[in-house]
Design brief:
Elements (H helix, E strand, L loop, with lengths): L2 H25 L30 H13 L6 H14 L3 E5 L2 H11 L16 E5 L4 H9 L3 E5 L13 H4 L5 E7 L8 H11 L2 E5 L7 E4 L20 E4 L6 E5 L12 E5 L3 H11 L47 H31 L7 E3 L5 E4 L5 E3 L5 E3 L4 E6 L7 H10 L16 H9 L4 E3 L4 H9 E5 L6 H18 L9
Parallel strand pairs: 2-3, 2-4, 3-15, 4-5, 5-8
Antiparallel strand pairs: 1-9, 6-7, 6-13, 8-9, 10-14, 11-12, 14-16
Helix pairs in contact: 1-2, 2-9, 3-9, 4-5, 4-8, 9-13
């Protein structure tokens, strides 16, 4: 190909990408951030208000199309760029992309079953992993799928998170190996209590951070955990603030469209500190292979034909040696290209979620008699200026809210289902807190019949039942405009007024 052909090809590419941006501007207006003036006009009662959704501009569309034009497809340079950027954002050692948040949980847990770990740390069939009863099933499913026993503790109906004071009750010496829990709806669980528990008993901690990207947690200045983070910068008062997903041994992310950023599908496993875990996570993600060469590269270890593992002959090609029974759970490179553009917008997205939550909370401030609103972990109350009152621990949480959680009180003249149906009629997206009490889901009911040893329950699951019966949430995502948020507030107040005895319970 002569130089003029190269120039012509590059000009064609530039034209394609220029037209791509124009097409996106004309076509995807409904997906633009709420602060974008070109977003379409909201029509109350006609425009659907999703509880969550994709928020993007022509930047992501151009990045995806540009990567497709390169047509590498399998995880490559774009994947490496996104992984490095995500790890830098979270301040973790490494991030490895997978094809979903559920796969991220599976890979993270599977990595801790590796025979390459010390025997006392390796999770084996019959070992126990503590988790929480309320939430999304794929936080728990990998525990069962890997042959371990899922030990359930109850959930707090106010935060949606585990009642971490029950961790000690769940512990069995010689059997308990790990804790694996999610930060519910963008609200960190009690990391101080959980980290101390895991340190005291030398347990793994996997943070399911899928709904909580951009949340932060502060350890108080007098926390005994601070020496674990000698290089981390302290706040002026000596406390330490870090993003969730950077405290445990491993953490997971989801990039499904409702989440804080999206690749369409996709997820990640974050290796927080121990470099050795990166090789194990990568192996289970990539077929179980022993080789760590990136796709398209050979002989990274400089001894491709110099290994003797298992009962294979010495010199067997390292690219085809398998040390684990793994999977193929990688995403595509164009997804990572989209993710890199999304990651640039993440700080704005996080602030939008916080603002939107506060707007809804302020607007519904007159309904506390009937609705119990969520609080950040360690908060004891919400104040009318948007601040919170806090407990005496000195620990704090700053939420990048995934949703606006409401629990209908037992004495209310309406039920959670009544409220959810009304919101549907008003075209306001809403969801339960995922699976509610997972122990009451058909799959887990059947599991307890088929394999009773797969599950152990600690105490009564009254909090998880309350979440199952009384909780609903609406959206906080960055695509919600002020008009949409106002409509949600007005609609909920309208509903509450209609079902009371004619008295006005709040000012619309």
């Amino acid at each position: 190909m002569n130089p003029s052909d190269n120039l012509a090809t590059e000009e064609i590419r530039e034209q394609i990408l220029k037209l791509t941006r124009e097409y996106s501007r004309r076509t995807h207006g409904q997906n633009r951030p709420a602060y974008d003036a070109s977003a379409p006009k909201f029509v109350p009662g006609e425009t659907n208000i999703p509880y969550a959704g994709r928020v993007f501009t022509e930047d992501e569309v151009e990045a995806g199309v540009g990567s497709m034009l390169d047509f590498w497809l399998t995880l490559g340079k774009e994947g490496e760029k996104f992984e490095n950027s995500l790890a830098d954002f979270l301040d973790v050692r490494r991030s490895l992309l997978v094809n979903s948040g559920s796969s991220a949980n599976l890979v993270a847990l599977s990595a801790l079953t590796s025979h390459k770990l010390p025997a006392e740390k390796r999770i084996c069939p019959g070992d126990e992993i503590i988790t929480v009863a309320a939430g999304f099933p794929t936080t728990v499913a990998p525990i069962i799928q890997c042959g371990a026993t899922a030990v359930f503790i109850d959930a707090d109906p106010v935060t949606g998170n585990a009642k971490c004071e029950q961790l000690e009750d769940a512990y069995v010496p010689g059997k308990t190996k790990a804790v694996m829990m999610a930060h519910a709806l963008g609200n960190p669980f009690d990391l101080s209590t959980t980290l101390q528990f895991c340190r005291d008993y030398d347990l793994w901690l996997i943070e399911d951070n899928c709904d909580a990207l951009g949340c932060s947690y502060t350890l108080s200045a007098d926390s005994s955990l601070l020496p674990q983070y000698p290089k981390a910068e302290r706040n002026e008062d000596g406390s330490l603030t870090k993003y969730t997903g950077s405290f445990g041994d491993l953490s997971t992310q989801s990039f499904y469209p409702p989440h804080h950023l999206t690749l369409g599908e996709g997820g990640a496993v974050n290796i927080v500190g121990q470099a050795a875990l990166k090789v194990l996570v990568e192996s289970f993600r990539d077929w179980g292979r022993d080789c760590w060469c990136p796709s398209g590269k050979d002989n990274t270890c400089n001894k491709r034909f110099g290994w003797q593992l298992g009962e294979l002959p010495e010199g067997y090609d390292h690219k085809y040696i398998y040390s684990h029974l793994g999977y193929n759970l990688k995403p595509l490179d164009p997804q990572a290209a989209i993710g890199s553009e999304q990651l640039k917008k993440l700080p704005e997205f996080i602030e939008a979620r916080k603002r939107n939550w506060q707007t809804l909370r302020s607007g519904l401030a007159g309904l506390e008699e009937y609705i119990e609103f969520s609080l950040p972990t360690h908060a004891t109350g919400w104040n009318s200026d948007g601040s919170f009152s806090w407990d005496s621990t000195g620990n704090r949480s700053d939420c990048s809210w995934f949703g606006f959680k409401m629990s209908v009180r037992e004495n209310a003249p309406f039920t959670r289902t009544d409220l959810a149906r009304f919101l549907d009629e008003k075209k306001i997206g809403n969801r339960m807190l995922f699976g509610g009490n997972l122990l009451r889901q058909p799959a887990f009911v059947q599991l307890r019949k088929d394999n009773p040893g797969a599950i152990r329950v600690v105490g009564e699951m009254t909090g998880a039942d309350e979440i199952m019966n009384q909780t609903v949430f609406t959206g906080t995502y960055p695509g919600l405009t002020e008009e949409m948020l106002g409509y949600i507030v007005d609609s909920i107040i309208e509903f509450a007024n209609e079902v009371t005895t004619g008295s006005t319970v709040a000012n619309a």
